[in-house]
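Quick review question:
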């Protein structure tokens, strides 16, 4: 089983082709701008075809490029439209002009219904006009696989496509056409027609299959296409097939003979060799094979390309190769002789070297002798030619080859003294005494050898004398030139130095210190390259001065490394007064880290150069800067972290002091009183008195130390007072714990009496509490408090102290809600005062005890316990409105069960059906969401490319939150894309249109009507587009919004986030606003 990969092109009316194929494959395909693509796997008998199917949808598609790249073509045509038939006639010549055969199938199809034309007439017209085409009529998209299978079979076999279902209809047409072609002596086309008839006969298992096959083979043989004839009979008559193969080989040999007789030896050799190779694979008849290879070898030798002849010999057995070499010796010699006569010495030399190498490897000594003698003659001719044309070195090499032939192959030597003398004289003329001496020793004549040796010695002596004199004169001239050059060079360098320094001064005036210094450094690098190191050091010092002037310390340290060792110390001494002044101003730099690095590097620089006195002065500046930074740090961070940082700085200062040998520490006045004073004050503020005392002891100034001690004593006094207050608070806490125990006991009793007490309150609800409860519901708390105060008076008058206490408790809740705690105490005291002797009975009720306990907790700011105390209010017989107020204070949710209770059975059923429908839609959208996410990046790139042309005005409106105007723009743009057939972009824009209208709070019905108008305007594409991800998503969103099913909104938002949105469009995803 094999797998084939083919590219198929579908042409015709774009609306028809895309509609048909999209229905056949149940999908719109992948949009490639000018065409849509599908990738399908088709099973054909035992083979598999992986097809890339491209449907052309734009008239400006480049068919000149796409047709040659196709392996097969399907063409859709409506025979009722004359224009489509004319276009087909124009396209067919383009298809025929391609170098390889492209199988083509025509599909007669009308998108509107059945074609009212005879199917037989349509098929016959195609089969007669275009025998190599196949046709289908009124094909249903579901049967499209038949067309693809027929096309795949044709692409695999190389034959014309054939629809097996109606092949029997083509059989008589092929026979009729074969007869017509035969009568007109068009044997090739007649053979093709008969072969196709034989193929149909084989499909339907007719006995005529064998007869038609032999007839087709006979017709191919009449035009010398013996191989085609053989292939046809391969499975029918093996002997006849073999006879045709023999005829095929003989035809190739005859072709070679024709070329040989025309002296086209290269072409003849190729034909003979091809015949031999083909026969060795297909026929295995040694006589034919040997004859073909012998003729090929003869032709290659005649073409003076013995290397190709030897390649053929390499493929033969060793014995046969040796025999053929012996046979072809005379031909090789004749070819070489021909080249000598033609004065093609170099080619003759190459051919003979190749032949000698082959004869030597096969140990054929007799033939080797003749070939080496012939090669020596060619080399002598080349040698004489090279000497006469003054090619001295080539002639010397050739003479070496001649000597090699004489010595290695015992070739008879020739006297070449005359030519050799001329070569030696030429070398002496060029003062090449080495090669001349070697060649003199190779002369045969002793007298000639002596004369040339004497001549060589005389010429060499004259040459040496002249050379010596020339050298002495050149030295004199060189010394003079060099002296002038040195002087001129120094003048040039001085001028260059002055020029560079002047240019640097200009940079300094413009405050471009780094540029000026770099300017001098580049010049110093140039001086270094030309070996002027002293001058280089001077220029580098100038560069360092510029960097110092510009406070560019980091670049200063880097450049300083380039100075030589002696110049480093000298420069540091010279520049120190200026350097020290600059360091005194270092606190003007932008941050302390840089100051620290500069001072540390400066100190290190002077110490490494053993300038210790200068280093002390730098260290003093360093310490002063550390003190300043420590005080600044403590001012910015008056915390323990600030103290830690200050201590780190002081530690560094002490390290510098210990490593620097200050002779008189008191004279330079190093102390850190200001730092320790600040640290002590921060420690006092942080309450860390031991640390404050520790740092105060380090202060040397007695007045400062005394002042700090006073602050510490004052803080200690305050702490004693705080400790006393805490003891009192602890006592109060114990009292509160006792009260809590009482509350818990009374709370349990109140919980047991709550139902009976609630019944009493409920009986009085209309007369006493309705107005107050309505006020609570309407959040008119002041009015509610007034009503409850009246109820307290009325209830106490009737000696209902428990219920009066509950009213006071509700008043306390209302005042807690309004954050008016003082008024609770006032209400409590006022009520007790009005009751006079009966006030004790009122005070001992659970509700009043609870209010008093809550007030005490607030007084001592016990918030946690206060929250717990509010929970005891639940033991009181409260109405629902009062309980809701309590729940608000406790931060609990107020449950609402009314909505569900008010729904009718019909409404519940409708809601259930809607939920099922939405879940189904979400499931389908979820399955497509991954594909949308995968294409998000490519779709965004496509949108971004059109951003300026189409979207800029819309995005500007979205920035201004003009959603309604943006929606209008989107729906206008939808029409533009739909006209271009880009329905995917159109559906996406409709989704954005709907989101804009939702943000603009437009009625849902407007969005639904606009969607219907858009879809109805698409005609036959309505079904395809209405089922897209974008359209279904906006429809689901409208459904959710209309039915107030907000729980689905997060899921919809996730599905919207996979879309290729611009930044300005992402605000449309806020679905809840």
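Suggested answer, residue by residue:
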């Amino acid at each position: 089983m094999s797998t084939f990969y083919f590219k198929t092109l579908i042409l015709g009316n774009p609306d028809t082709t895309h509609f048909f194929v999209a229905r056949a494959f149940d999908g719109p395909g992948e949009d490639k701008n000018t065409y849509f693509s599908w990738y399908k796997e088709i099973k054909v008998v035992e083979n598999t075809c992986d097809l890339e199917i491209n449907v052309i949808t734009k008239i400006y598609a480049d068919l000149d490029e796409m047709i040659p790249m196709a392996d097969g073509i399907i063409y859709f045509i409506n025979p009722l439209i004359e224009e489509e038939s004319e276009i087909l006639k124009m396209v067919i010549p383009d298809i025929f002009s391609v170098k390889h055969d492209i199988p083509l199938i025509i599909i007669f199809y009308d998108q509107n219904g059945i074609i009212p034309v005879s199917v037989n007439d349509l098929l016959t017209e195609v089969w007669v006009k275009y025998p190599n085409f196949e046709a289908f009529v009124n094909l249903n998209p579901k049967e499209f696989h038949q067309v693809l299978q027929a096309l795949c079979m044709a692409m695999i076999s190389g034959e014309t496509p054939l629809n097996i279902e109606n092949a029997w209809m083509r059989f008589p047409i092929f026979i009729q056409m074969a007869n017509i072609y035969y009568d007109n002596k068009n044997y090739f086309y007649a053979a093709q027609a008969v072969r196709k008839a034989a193929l149909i006969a084989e499909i339907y298992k007719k006995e005529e299959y064998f007869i038609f096959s032999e007839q087709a083979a006979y017709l191919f043989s009449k035009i010398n296409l013996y191989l085609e004839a053989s292939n046809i009979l391969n499975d029918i008559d093996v002997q006849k097939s073999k006879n045709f193969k023999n005829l095929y080989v003989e035809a190739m040999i005859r072709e070679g003979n024709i070329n040989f007789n025309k002296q086209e030896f290269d072409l003849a050799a190729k034909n003979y060799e091809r015949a031999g190779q083909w026969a060795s694979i297909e026929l295995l008849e040694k006589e034919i094979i040997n004859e073909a290879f012998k003729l090929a070898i003869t032709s290659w030798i005649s073409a003076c390309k013995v290397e190709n002849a030897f390649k053929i010999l390499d493929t033969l057995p060793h014995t046969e190769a040796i025999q053929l070499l012996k046979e072809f010796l005379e031909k090789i010699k004749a070819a070489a002789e021909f080249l000598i006569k033609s004065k093609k010495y170099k080619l003759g030399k190459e051919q003979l070297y190749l032949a000698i190498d082959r004869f030597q490897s096969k140990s054929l000594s007799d033939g080797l002798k003749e070939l080496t003698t012939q090669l020596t003659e060619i080399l002598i001719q080349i040698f004489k030619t090279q000497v006469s044309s003054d090619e001295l070195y080539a002639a010397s090499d050739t003479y070496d080859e001649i000597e090699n032939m004489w010595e290695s192959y015992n070739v008879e030597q020739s006297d070449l003294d005359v030519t050799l003398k001329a070569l030696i004289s030429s070398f002496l003329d060029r003062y090449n005494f080495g090669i001349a001496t070697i060649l003199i020793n190779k002369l045969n004549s002793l007298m000639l050898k002596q004369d040339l040796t004497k001549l060589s010695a005389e010429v060499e002596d004259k040459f040496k004398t002249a050379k010596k004199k020339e050298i002495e004169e050149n030295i004199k001239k060189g010394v003079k030139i060099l002296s002038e050059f040195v002087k001129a060079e120094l003048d040039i360098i001085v001028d260059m130095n002055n020029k560079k320094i002047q240019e640097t001064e200009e940079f300094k005036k413009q405050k471009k210190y780094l540029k000026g210094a770099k300017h001098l450094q580049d010049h110093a690098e140039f001086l270094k390259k030309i070996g002027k190191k002293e001058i280089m050091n001077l220029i580098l010092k100038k560069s360092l001065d510029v960097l110092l002037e510009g406070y560019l310390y980091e670049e200063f340290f880097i450049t300083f490394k380039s100075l030589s060792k002696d110049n480093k110390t000298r420069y540091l001494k010279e520049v120190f007064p200026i350097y020290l002044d600059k360091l005194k101003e270092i606190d003007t730099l932008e941050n302390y880290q840089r100051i620290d690095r500069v001072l540390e590097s400066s100190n290190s620089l002077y110490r490494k150069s053993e300038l210790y006195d200068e280093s002390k002065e730098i260290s003093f500046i360093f310490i002063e800067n550390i003190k300043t930074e420590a005080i600044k740090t403590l001012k910015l961070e008056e915390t323990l972290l600030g103290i830690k940082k200050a201590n780190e700085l002081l530690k560094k200062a002490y390290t510098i002091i210990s490593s620097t040998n200050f002779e008189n520490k008191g004279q330079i006045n190093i102390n850190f009183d200001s730092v320790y004073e600040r640290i002590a004050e921060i420690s006092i503020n942080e309450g860390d008195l031991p640390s404050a005392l520790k740092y105060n002891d380090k202060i040397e100034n007695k007045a400062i130390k005394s002042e700090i001690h006073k602050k510490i004593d004052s803080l200690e006094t305050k702490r004693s007072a705080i400790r006393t207050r805490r003891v009192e608070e602890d006592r109060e806490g114990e009292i509160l714990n006792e009260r809590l125990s009482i509350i818990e006991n009374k709370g349990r009793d109140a919980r047991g009496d709550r139902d009976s007490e609630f019944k009493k309150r409920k009986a009085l609800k209309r007369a006493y509490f309705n107005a107050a409860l309505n006020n609570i519901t309407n959040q008119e708390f002041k009015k509610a408090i007034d009503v409850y105060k009246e109820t307290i008076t009325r209830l106490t008058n009737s000696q209902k102290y428990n219920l009066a206490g509950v009213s006071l408790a509700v008043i306390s809740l209302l005042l807690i809600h309004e954050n008016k705690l003082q008024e609770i105490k006032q209400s409590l005291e006022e009520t007790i005062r009005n009751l006079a002797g009966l006030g004790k009975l009122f005070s001992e009720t659970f509700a009043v005890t609870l209010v008093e306990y809550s007030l005490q907790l607030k007084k001592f700011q016990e918030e946690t316990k206060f929250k717990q105390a509010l929970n005891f209010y639940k033991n009181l017989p409260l109405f629902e409105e009062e309980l809701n107020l309590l729940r608000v204070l406790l931060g609990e949710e107020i449950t609402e069960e009314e909505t569900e209770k008010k729904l009718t059975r019909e409404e519940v059923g409708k809601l259930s059906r809607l939920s099922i429908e939405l879940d189904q839609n979400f499931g389908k959208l979820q399955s497509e969401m991954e594909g949308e996410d995968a294409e998000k990046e490519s779709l965004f790139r496509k949108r971004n490319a059109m951003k300026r042309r189409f979207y800029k005005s819309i995005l500007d409106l979205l920035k201004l939150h003009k959603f309604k105007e943006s929606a209008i723009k989107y729906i206008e743009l939808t029409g533009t894309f739909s006209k271009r057939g880009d329905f995917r972009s159109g559906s996406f824009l409709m989704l954005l249109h709907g989101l804009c209208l939702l943000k603009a709070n437009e009625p849902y019905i407007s969005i639904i009507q606009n969607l219907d108008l858009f879809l109805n305007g698409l005609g036959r594409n309505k079904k395809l587009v209405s089922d897209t991800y974008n359209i279904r998503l906006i429809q689901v969103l409208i459904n959710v919004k209309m039915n107030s099913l907000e729980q689905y909104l997060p899921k919809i938002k996730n599905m919207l986030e996979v879309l290729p949105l611009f930044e300005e469009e992402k605000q449309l995803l806020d679905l809840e606003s």
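Why it works: The CA atoms of residues 573 and 611 lie 8 Å apart. DSSP finds 48 helices and seven strands in the chain.
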